[in-house]
Amino acid sequence: MMSMGVLGALIGLAIGIADVFILGLVKARIEQQRPTEGGGGGLVIGIVQISQLIFFPVAGWYAGTYLL
Fold first, then answer.
1. How many Cα atoms within 13 Å fall on the side-chain side of residue 17?
2. What's the pTM?
3. Segment-wise mean pLDDT, segments of 10 residues, the chain, 68 residues
């Protein structure tokens, strides 16, 4: 049987992976519409994609451990 913290972390990881795909679509759309501008927006979205993969499982573990 899994602990509630591990279950929360797995749910957070699933949400983080889905968010990476959604932000990837947004990033591709931005690069398609404005290819000549600097890549500042795309860089920020790339950083947010990586941070979501770290933040959501940690937040899910915390929520599963302390709130449930």
1. 6
2. 0.81
3. 89 96 90 71 87 94 86
